[in-house]
Amino acid sequence: MNPFLLQGRTAIVTGGSSGIGLACVEQLLQAGAQVAFCGRDSGRLGAAERSLRERYPEARMLALACDVLDADAMQAFASASQKALGPASVLINNAGQGRVSTFADTSNTAWSEELNLKLFSVINPVHAFKPQLDSQPGAAIVCVNSLLASQPEPHMVATSAARAGVLNLVRSLATEFAPDGIRVNGILIGLVESGQWRRRFDAREERHLDWTQWTAQLAQRKQIPLGRLGLPIEAARAILFLASPLSAYTTGSHIDVSGGLCRHA
Question: Hey, what CATH class is 10-192+230-257 in?
């Protein structure tokens, strides 16, 4: 990785204490950016910050516990990061897990929660950081989305619908923000190793299978051509590309990071 790719830039990562978000923070630091990241779990956030500071002692970073669904908290996060690191030129929106449910067993409350999480985890950070992005040349917003947005699954009906909304939101924001010099893109992830999958592994019935064997069988059942789950760093590298000058002529697009799971051209 070019260590000067984002030299002197300030990048923001929501949901940055674990998984893809934490991998993004590390990739951004390696690319020369100063990074502010947030998460709801203060304990996990603190552990992530300590680990990063041990490995990148010279890096400038800020970790702040806050909820992306709290608009006031996001405004406070934006103010704190600007004061500590300067105005943001990169915003990575990464928050929210999937909800397993069919239409028959998804309550109205669950629908509201899922749509609210997926949409306002983008809307609130964009509202908070847009004034800073407006002032920065080559500014970029990247949203972590799911392949469910274009390839819905009946057992994840609410998440699929909400993710489709984010897909359209990215396109709308890209068009609206283009005159302001802000690019807006996203990635569509398939099955990526995460705490959610680790918990399912821990609850597995096939106790004789280790993690590698279990995930290989999962990939086979899901018909993933590459035969395995993705790694958080693989998603983070696609995000870094979209956040960097390497994709200066790309906006309103999504990169497929699904190991070939996408069945559409």
Answer: alpha beta
